[in-house]
Amino acid sequence: MSAYRQLKHDIIRGCYAPEQKLLMSRLKEQYGASTGPLREALSQLVADRLVVAISQRGYRVAPMSLAELNDIYDARAQLEGLILRLAIERGDDDWEATVLATAHRLAKVTDVNTPDDLLDLWDQRHKAFHTAIASGCNSPHLLQMRNTLFDQVERYRHLWLQETVMSSKALELKRQEHAALVDVILARDTAQADTLMRDHLMTPVPIITRVLEARGIS
User: Fold this and answer.
1) Using CA of residue 167, residue 151, residue 130, residue 76, what is the dihedral sign?
2) E-state strands within the chain
């Protein structure tokens, strides 16, 4: 795994606190990489808005805030709604089959060896499910915008995953939400699909808000 992917994964998973200084000497030791690849990784993470460059003083992990949380989630829900409407309009039989297949794989994530394995597998299949839905829009530019927003949401979203996805009750609730989404998508019910998708995407916000407030982040 590249230094960029490793460091990005660790920032998203909360291994580094918001605004924590990223010391090159420690990063070299942690990731076994030289200065060049690490500087390139940090520059990419600045573009991803996960790291902030400090003039003449290196890099820090980007801050987190309730205002950013609400803005990113709202932007994502608005864009996902547009993409979903286009997918329902443009998606073909192969698209429907892919949505069904990814939903089925996601629903089968119930019993995994460790909590971390469960989180990783569920998150991987959950992303594949939503990506399958979005793919029906047939717009590479919209999908690229979606990926950018998803990356920015991830650090906040992981706080929700840590709080809830280990719960069998939460897993069952999400399974029901996904099944309902699939039903209205295959029925080509744009209005209902749009409503369900927004409700589904915004579910984590109150939980993440409580976590941030408990950590003194406003």
Assistant:
1) positive
2) 21-22, 51-54, 58-61
Distance CA 33, CA 46 (A): 18
Q: Residue 172: give the domain boundaries.
A: 66-215
CA 206 to CA 200: how far, in whole Å? 12
State the maximum Cα–Cα separation within the chain, in Å, rounded to a whole number.
Answer: 56
Indicate if 47 and 71 belong to the same structural domain. no
Q: Do 38 and 87 belong to one domain?
A: no
Query: CB of 163 within 8 A of CB of 211?
Result: yes
- Count how many domains the chain has: 2
Phi, psi values for residue 119, rounded to 5°:
-60, -45
Angstrom distance (rounded) from CA 86 to CA 186: 13
Average pLDDT value over all residues in the chain? 91
Could you tell me where the beta strands, DSSP code E, fall in 1-134?
21-22, 51-54, 58-61
Rounded Cα–Cα distance for residues 83 and 208 (Å): 25
Angle (CA) 53-127-120 rounded to 5° is 80
Distance between CA 131 and CA 147 in Å, rounded?
9
Tens digit of each residue's pLDDT (9 = 90 or more) over 146-200 = 998 988 899 999 898 888 766 778 788 889 999 999 999 999 999 999 999 999 9
pTM summary value: 0.88
Distance of CA 119 to the CA centre of its chain: 13
